[in-house]
Amino acid sequence: MGEIDLDALAPWLGRTETKEDVLTHGLIDKFRATLGPHLWDGAGDVPLGIHWCLALDTVPATALSEDGHAARGGFLPPVPLPARMWAGGDVTHIAPLKIGEIITRRSSIRNIVAKQGRSGPLVFVTVEHEYLSGNRLFIREQQTIVYREISTPRTGESAADAGDPNTLRSTLTPDPVLLFRYSALTFNAHRIHYDYVYATETEAYSGLVVHGPLQATLLLNLAAGALKTSPHRFSFRGLAPLTLPCELQLHNEGTGTSGTVWCQDQKGLRSFSAEYAAV
User: Fold this and answer.
1) Where is the FAS1-like dehydratase domain (predicted)?
2) How crowded is residue 86: how many other Cβ atoms within 10 Å of its Cβ?
3) 105: pLDDT strictly greater than 90
4) Angle at Cα 61 formed by Cα 16 and Cα 107, nearest 5°?
5) I need a surface site. Which of 142, 189, 233, 247 has the fewest CB within 10 A?
């Protein structure tokens, strides 16, 4: 594909969308049942990362694309590239969410940028989300989505401290059941997380793909455990796809008030990382 026509996408800049939801005990129970051992136990009634399960897009099946995402050209711009994934983001925690409240997610398209990557053209779309109840702001997030051509995904590079026991905090072995349950929690129909044939034959992954938000949730809770409080700032980015089968290792290197957390597999290949700070 040639150069991306950003002028055709410009009308989406500044576009807004508002969704509402109620934070229920039922959602929290399902979230804890899915991720329990890896959630910070100091968060109180509402676990960290559950905001990614609130005020979701509820697109009917007839309005989905082949990959399971909503058809292009709704709230998000109709980027003419077939593959889409989380690239990164920045979360600011302002106040804890409360059970039983109506949560509003107010979203806006902040930026659309085209770049040339090693695999071809890339388009980065930055979306700002604000989570509110009435006029009280709880969380502000800048999230970047990257669109690209379908090609064999890069695998990343081995971490220099892959075997360092001083940074390794815990491990888990994700399986298709975990990926299915997290897809259900986030109403995420992207087929790379549950359809092995589609993931390997159409999008050229080596196996089912572990969700970016799932890895971000694990790292957010790891950071909170290190700080013994919710991180005020949590800036994350995807480094490479993490596919099954794998061992997911959670690492932390910090000073007590800030630090770096990351996910890597049993070979030391980093898939996701984040910087965090208490203030």
Assistant:
1) 16-134
2) 18
3) yes
4) 15
5) 247
Lowest mean pLDDT among 4-8, 58-62, 151-155: 151-155
Domain count, the chain: 1
Mean pLDDT, range 218-227, rounded to an integer: 97
Q: Kindly state whether residue 90 falls inside one of the protein's structural domains.
A: yes
- pLDDT value at residue 240: 94
**Cβ contacts of 134-137, under 8 Å, gap ≥ 24:** 136/95, 137/94, 137/95
- Separation of CA 91 from chain center: 11
Q: Can you tell me whether residue 99 is helix, strand or coil?
A: coil
Please check whether residue 1 lies inside any domain of the structure: no
Question: What Cα–Cα distance (Å) separates residue 188 from each residue in 184, 193, 246?
Answer: 6, 9, 21
What CATH number is attached to the domain comprising 144? 3.10.129.10
Looking at residues 164-186, what average pLDDT do you find? 94
Token pair 């399902």 is found at: 30
Residue 90 in tokens? 């920045």
Where do runs of H (alpha helix) occur along the chain? 6-9, 25-35, 176-185, 196-197, 212-227
Which residues have C-beta within 8 Å of that of residue 252, sequence separation ≥ 6? 167, 169, 222, 223, 226, 259, 260, 261
Distance, CA of 269 to CA of 241 (rounded, Å)? 10
Q: Is the full-model pTM beyond 0.85?
A: yes
201 neighbors 262 (Cβ within 8 angstroms): no
What pLDDT does 253 receive? 96
Q: Hey, which bits of the chain come out as E strands?
A: 16-22, 83-93, 102-117, 120-133, 136-148, 168-172, 233-238, 248-254, 258-264, 270-277
Q: What phi, psi does 216 have (nearest 5°)?
A: -60, -40
Domain residue limits at 263: 7-277
Task: Quote the distance between the C-alpha of residue 35 and its chain's center.
Answer: 15
Omega into 213 within 30° of 0, i.e. cis? Answer: no
Indicate whether 128 belongs to any domain. Answer: yes
For residue 174, being part of any structural domain is answered with yes
